[in-house]
Amino acid sequence: GVWIQKMLQQTSASIWMRNVQLASFGTVTSIFVAMVQDGEEIANGGLCQGYNRRVVSVILMTAFGGLLCAVMLKYAGATHGCFSTAMSIILTCILSEAFIGDFVPDGLFVLGTVVAISASLLFALGLPEWVLTASGRALK
Fold first, then answer.
1. Do 84 and 72 touch, CB atoms closer than 8 A?
2. Are 93 and 103 in contact (CB under 8 A)?
3. Are 86 and 123 in contact (CB under 8 A)?
4. Cα gap 24→34, rounded to integer Å
5. What is the DSSP letter of 63?
6. Which of 30, 71, 74, 127 could lock onto 8 through a cystine, CB 3.0 to 4.6 A?
7. Model confidence pTM above 0.85
C-alpha cells in the first residue's frame, strides 16, 4: 500500500494514466494465467462462458472499487485506507447480521470494533489536550 501511495502521489502522471499502466500489467498477467490454466476451455467455449448478470455486477463493483482505492491512495493515503477497510468490514458484518442473519457478533468482534473505531477517531482528531499536557507534549 505504501509503495502504491508513493507511486501515485509523487509523480507527474495523472491517476488515470497510472490506472491504465497498472491495468495493462494486470491484463497481461491474467491472460497468461488464464491460458495456462484454462486454455482449452477458453478455446472451446469462449472467454465469456458462464457470465450472467450477477457475474457482470461483481466485475463492475470490483472495477469501481479499484478506482475508488486509487483515488483514496492519491488524495488520502494508505493509513486512511487501512481505517476505511476496517470500518467497511465492521459495517459489512453489522449489515450481514441485520439483514441476512448469518453473522453472530461475539465479544472479540465487539472489542475489535471498539478498538478500530477508537483508533480511527484518535487518528482523525488527535490526542486530547489533557493527554498531551500530562505527557509534557502540549501544543504551544
1. yes
2. yes
3. no
4. 15
5. H
6. 74
7. no
